[in-house]
Amino acid sequence: MPIKNSIIESQLTSFSNEQQISSETESERFEKFSIYSCERGYLKSGIDPFNAHLEGEEFGIDGVAILVNGELVDNLDQFDSGFPISNVEFHFFQTKSSNSFDTGETLKFFSAIVNFFIENYDAPTEQMLNLFKIKNYIYENSGDMNENPQIKLFYITTGTYQSPVDIEREISTIKERLSETNLFSEISVEMIGASLLQDRYRNTNKAVTAEIEFSNNVVLPTIESIEDAYIGYLDAQEIIKLTSTDGKKINPTVFYDNIRDYDPESDINKSISEALDKGEGSLFVFRNNGITVVAKDLKRTGNRFPITDYQIVNGCQTSHILFNNSEKITNTSVPFRLIKCTDDKDISSIIVGTNLQNPVKKEQFWSLTPFMKNFEEYCSSLEEPKRIYFERRENQYRGSDIEKVRIITPVNLLKSVTSVLFFEGNRSGRSYASIRKEYSPKLFMDAHEVSIYHMSAYCFYRLEYLWRNNKIDSKYKIYRFIILTSIGRILTNSKKLLEMSNKEGKQIALRVTNYISDDDRLKILVDKVNKRIEKIVEENIDSANNARDLIRNEEINKKITDSISKISSPDISKY
C-alpha cells in the first residue's frame, strides 16, 4: 500500500538515497527504514539494521535482531571461545505502510513470535531456521548470563495509535504468554505510529546530548585544539545521565569501546559492586580512577554543563557498575574530567593516554594507529565511484550526507580483509573478537600498502551495493564471505597481496578495484561464483543440514574452493 504520510515519504526517500536502495519496492524500503529508525534512533544498538531484515516472506515478521553482548548475531560461527554469552536481547519487527493498526495483522505478528520460542517450531524459511538455532544455542549455553534475555516487539505503521481495546487486549495476552515461558527478564511491546517513527528516524542523525550538574570542578589549562577542560568530581547520579537513555538502558553509542568489552565477571568489577552493596559508596571517589568525557561541544551556565556529541573515552567499567547499581549510589562521587575537543588527532591521543594506564589490549587501539589514519584519508580522497569512508570512530559520520552504504566499520574491514586477502571467508563469520585475536599480528602494519586494504573493503561495499539494488538475489547473502574470498582468489590469481612487495601488491589491487567498479563485470563474476556454490550445496544438503550449516563444513568448503579455482581469471592487466 502506498505511503500516505508526506513526511515519512520524504524521510524514506532520503534514507533510500543514503543507503543506495532506491531500486527496491517501497514496501521493502519501508521495512528497512523502520528497523533502521528503531535500532539506530531509539535503541542506539549500533548494529547494521540491514542484517536484521528478513528477506523472505516470513509469516507475520519483517525483522529479527538477536544481540549478544551488544553484537548482532546472525550465524552460529560467532559463538566461539572468544564470545561468552552474558547479555542477550531479542528484537522483533513487523511493519505496515498503511495508516491503520489492524488487529488481525497484530495477532499474526504476536503468534509468529510465540511460535518462534516453542520447542517444535516449524521454520517457514531457512533464514528463520538459522535464527531459531541461534536462539536454541543461547538458551542451551546460558550459564554465564547476567539475567534472562530481554525481548522487544515493535509493530510499526504510518498511522496514529489510539489504544483500541481489542489490540490492547492482544498486547496483554502476548505479554502473559511470553512471561509464562520464564525465558525473559523483560518484555516490551511498542505500537509505533507515524509521529514516533518520524522522531526516531530524525534521532539517527542527531548527536548524543546530555546536561549535567558539575559543581566540584577546576578549570584546566587549554591548548589550541582543546577549547575547554575541567577536572573534579561528580555525583554518581550525574554519570547515569551521561551513560544511559533516560536512565533505563546503557547507551552503547557513548562508549568508544563496544559495550561488550564490559566484563561483569572480572574480580575487580565484582569487588566494586560488593563495596556498593555494603554501603561504601562514600569511598568510591578514593578508590576509582574515574571517568573521562570528550565532547565536540559544551557550554557552561553556572555549574550546569550541556554537552553534545560526546564519548566516554575512559571509564567503561565504572560506568556500567554505577548504572547496574543505580539504587545504591547515594552519597557516591566519581573522579571526572570533561574536555571539549574537535580535533580527531588529539581525541585519539586522549583515548590512548587515558587507557594505557589500564590493562587494555593493544589491538583495541587499531583505529588510532598511523596506518588506520592513513587508510581513512586514502579511502575518502579517492574519486567516485571508488571512494569509501572508513569509520575509525563510532558515529564519526553521523549527520553527514554521505551514502551510508559507503561507510566501512572496523568490523567489516577486518572481515573483508580476512576474506579477500587471506581467502578465509569460511571463517569470517565468527565473532569480531575471535578474528581480531587471530589476525592482529598480521594486519594493519604501518609499512603496509593502504590501497590493498582499500581493495578488500571496496569489494565488500560493491557486493553490498549489488544486493541493495537487486542486481543479485538476496538468497546468496548467507555466502557473503565465501563470495568475497572467491572474488579475491579469481581476480588476484590466488596471490596473497600482503606477502608481495608494496609495489606489486598495489598494482594488482588497483587493477582489481578498477575491474569491480563496473556493475556488469562484477555481476557476471558473482553470478558464476554463486552458481558453483549453489551446485555444491544442493549436491550435499540433506535433512540434517541447511545451507548455513553446510558452508561451515571444512570438506564442503574445500569442494567450493576447488570448484571456484576452475573459473578462469579475467585479464585485468588493462584496467
Considering the chains and any ligands shown, give keywords for the structure:
single chain, 575 residues, alpha/beta, five-stranded mixed sheet, globular
Short description:
By secondary structure, the protein is of the alpha/beta class. It has three domains: 6-203; 209-360, no CATH class; 365-564, no CATH class.
How does this model look, in words?
By secondary structure, the protein is of the alpha/beta class. The chain has 3 domains: 6-203; 209-360, no CATH class; 365-564, no CATH class. The chain contains 20 helices and 15 strands. It has helices spanning 6-19, 26-41, 103-116, 126-140, 165-180, 194-203, 236-243, 267-277, 284-287, 316-324, 344-355, 370-381, 410-420, 432-439, 450-468, 480-492, 502-516, 519-540, 547-550, 554-564; strands spanning 63-68, 71-72, 88-95, 150-156, 186-192, 209-213, 216-219, 226-235, 244-245, 249-250, 291-298, 304-314, 333-341, 389-390, 407-408. Strands 6-12-11-13-8-7 form a 6-stranded mixed β-sheet. A hairpin with a 2-residue loop joins strand 1 (63-68) and strand 2. Helix 3 runs parallel beside helix 5 (165-180), helix 13 (410-420) crosses helix 14 and helix 13 crosses helix 15. The longest helix is centred in the C-terminal third of the chain and has 22 residues, at 519-540. The protein is globular, with a radius of gyration of 25 Å. Mean pLDDT is 86; it is low at 357-364.
